[in-house]
Every structure is written in C-alpha cells, then in structure tokens.
Design goal:
single chain; about 425 residues; 20 strands; about 20% strand
Length: about 425
C-alpha cells in the first residue's frame, strides 16, 4: 500500500478539492497519512491570493524537497496556475497541475506508477469532476457549487487563476449532498469563488439553497465566504428554516465608498450597512463575519476610519484582516498612492484589535442561551469541542460524547484566550 500526504493552503474551495482527491486515493488503496510523515506521494494545494500566500506555498514545497527528495512531488492550486511555467522549470517538482486539471491528479499518479509518460495538460479538464468524498479531513462536508469569477476587482488575480465564472449543474449538487448525508455527514458547506452568482438554467443561488434545504435528512447547511452581490434581500427569508445555519461570511473589504469604487467592488458601503442592519433586525444574534483589506492604494486615514466605524456599527463576529498585497498584472498595481508596509501594519493591528473586542462581545452574548453543537474533536482531557449553528466554538466539559453528532448545549461561560471559546453543558441526553 502506497502512502500519500496532502498540504492545503488557502480557501475552502481548495479544502474541498483536497478532500475529494484524498477520498479518491483512498478508494485506490492508498494510505492517506499526515503531511509530516513519510509518504510516496506529496500533493501541495497552493494559494496565491497574496504575497504571503505565495511565501507559505514556497516554504511548504521547499520543505518537501528538502526532507522527501525521493518521493513523487505534485504542486497544484492557484500558485501552480499563476506560475506554472516557472515551477515546471524547477526540477525539484515532478508535476505542476493547474486548477483546470486538478481533478485528474489520481489518474496522473496511477499513470506514473504504470511507467507511462505523464503530461498533466493532456488529462481531462473538468472543474467539477470530483466524486463525493466519504473520507475527508473534516467533520463538515464541503460542497463545490461554483468556480471562477467575472467581477475583476482591481486588486484580485482570482479570475486569472480560477477563470471565468461557471456553475456546477444543480442536479449534480443535489446528488452530491444526498450522498454525503448518506455517508453520515451532519453539516454541508456550500463553497466556490463567487457563489452568490450561481446560475444553472432557471436555478439561481436562492433557488439552489432552497432546494437543498428541502433534501430530507438530519443535517444543516452552512454558506461559506460570499460576495455581497448577486442575490437580493428576499434570499434572507431562507434563514427561517432551522437547517440553514445563521451565519454568513460576507466580504466587506472596505467601509469607504471611495475605496470600494477604486477596488471596483459591485456594491456600496451604504448598501452593505443596510443589508447588515436588515439581517440583524430580522435575525437577532445572526453571526456576520467579514474580510477587510487595509492599505489599498490611495487609502487615506479617513478612508481607514470609515472601515473601523462601519465594522463597529455592524459588530462583526470576526474580521479576517488582509494587508493590501500587490498582484502583478492587476489594475491596482498601477495605481498611485501605495502605502508603506509600516503603515499597513499599523492599520492591520488596529483592525485586529477591534475584531478581538467584537468577537469577545459577540460570543459573550450567548451566555445563558443554547447552541446545537456538532462535535468535531476532543481536547487532552477528552472533552468534546465543536461549533454551534452560529459558528461559535463550544467546549462541553464531558467525556464519552461522539464525534459528528449534534448535542444541545446551554452556554454557561466564555473561556479566556486569543480565540475565546464558549463552555456549557448538555441540557438533555438526546442528540
């Protein structure tokens, strides 16, 4: 039995694709082992959204080359697409597989071990040719519904490395979900590059989600990172269904109207604020999380303060902060007013500080309330840890609970720490 190891960097879409590849290799009688262990094959699924992402991807590849020189080494993902030719000239990498051909990696490895000549570009090109994964690295099942993007924000290279927007056939998505629910998964996460723009015939994103909620089974649905465009306010009526988790990660990027315009975002700060206010009015306690970019070219101190004020007003459950990173070939690269790294660091630190305060306040609001917790792991004492429907981490100080099961928990306190965790006890002995 050959051994294979995976390392995934970047977004949930990459995580979905790695899960699907690992599951396929397991069916081929490969043993999937931790990345730190010895393996016959190493697959690095890279990210290139920022310079830091490139750096991390290179570090991982160098680690594999240094420690596992005799293994088969495959690099794939967005960095492999962006710098394909450069990586192909690196003799330390055996195969460079772009996103279009990523689903064919199992076939490539099989051909390699059958002493066939392997040219990745000659294999099948299919963005959705991934079988439902019954063995994954996660308790939740990630479901790819869409790929690519047509927005062309001025700072972003995703349309270049992921291509134009394309949607997976709805019938395939429904079948995928039915299968993973049959495998025993209790939570499915809809993922893609720009999932709000999903469109297959007469099925838009709202219709797709509504149909998924009508699939029988004891599972809940979570929406991963989404842009604040492509769907209207009528979509939010779907959160009345208890199957749909009351949490969305909606990308703000900036609270400044001027900066959003320079970014070529498809919404305004005022419409984002209105949407957030409507969500909280209709669903008190709804967990809104977001991304904010600091130090975009030309961002003034007032522009930055607009972002802080917007975030404070909305009260996000968490902010993922990015320092603006130059991506070659984008419009933003050619814009005037690039900020020094020191100033970007200062602004990033202030957003993180605000995020920590809001996260603590938001999670504290659950004390005395209940959460339906899906158990994902156990700590050193054997206590169960999982996430509630609002995507808040909860520890249950009790042993003997089962992974991948729902438990209703009354929250009693917030445990201190860099990422504060709620703690509570089951209110009954049922799932």
């Amino acid at each position: 039995m050959k051994k294979i190891a995976f390392k995934t960097l970047g977004c949930r879409l990459n995580l979905f694709e790695t899960d699907a590849l690992a599951s396929e290799f397991a069916k081929m009688n490969y043993q999937v082992v931790p990345f730190e262990e010895e393996a016959d094959v190493y697959v690095v699924n890279t990210c290139t959204v920022t310079n830091q992402s490139d750096h991390k991807s290179k570090q991982v590849m160098n680690q594999v080359n240094r420690i596992h020189n005799n293994s088969l080494k495959i690099v794939t993902g967005c960095m492999a697409t962006q710098f394909k030719e450069k990586l192909e000239n690196d003799t330390k990498v055996d195969f460079v597989v772009d996103n279009d051909h990523k689903s064919s990696i199992p076939a490539m490895v099989d051909a390699y071990y059958n002493n066939e000549i392997v040219v990745p570009d000659r294999f099948e090109k299919n963005l959705f040719a991934y079988d439902p994964a019954d063995e994954t690295f996660h308790t939740r099942s990630l479901i790819k519904i869409q790929d690519g993007c047509d927005n062309f924000c001025t700072y972003c290279i995703i349309p270049k490395v992921r291509g134009r927007a394309t949607s997976r056939p709805a019938i395939d998505i429904y079948d995928n979900i039915r299968q993973v629910v049959a495998f025993g998964f209790k939570e499915v996460v809809l993922t893609g590059v720009n999932i709000g723009r999903y469109h297959d015939g007469k099925t838009d994103f709202e219709t797709l989600v509504e149909n998924i909620l009508n699939i029988p089974g004891d599972f809940r649905v979570r929406i991963s990172s989404i842009e604040p465009d492509g769907y209207n306010e009528n979509f939010f009526r779907l959160f009345k269904n208890p199957k749909l988790a009351p949490h969305m990660h909606i990308c703000l990027q900036s609270g400044s109207e001027d900066i959003l315009l320079k970014m070529r975002r498809m919404y305004t700060a005022s419409t984002f604020k209105e949407m957030a206010d409507n969500i909280r009015e209709n669903y008190p306690g709804f967990n809104l999380t977001t991304d904010i970019i600091v130090g975009f070219p030309g961002e003034t101190e007032q522009d930055f303060q607009d972002s802080l004020e917007m975030a404070s007003h909305i009260g996000f459950g968490h902010i993922h902060t990015f320092k603006y990173s130059v991506r070659k070939g984008t419009r933003a690269e050619r814009m005037p007013g690039h900020l020094p790294e020191k100033e970007k660091n200062r602004r990033s630190a202030l957003v993180r500080q605000l995020s920590d305060e809001m996260k603590k306040n938001y999670r504290s609001s659950f004390i005395g309330k209940t959460q339906k917790v899906l158990i994902e792991q156990f700590d050193d004492q054997g206590f169960a840890i999982g996430y509630g429907e609002h995507y808040v981490p909860v520890i249950i100080p009790e042993k003997g609970l089962k992974k991948n099961e729902f438990y209703t928990v009354k929250i009693e306190k917030l445990l201190p720490g860099d990422d504060p965790v709620l703690s509570g006890n089951r209110i009954n002995k049922k799932k």
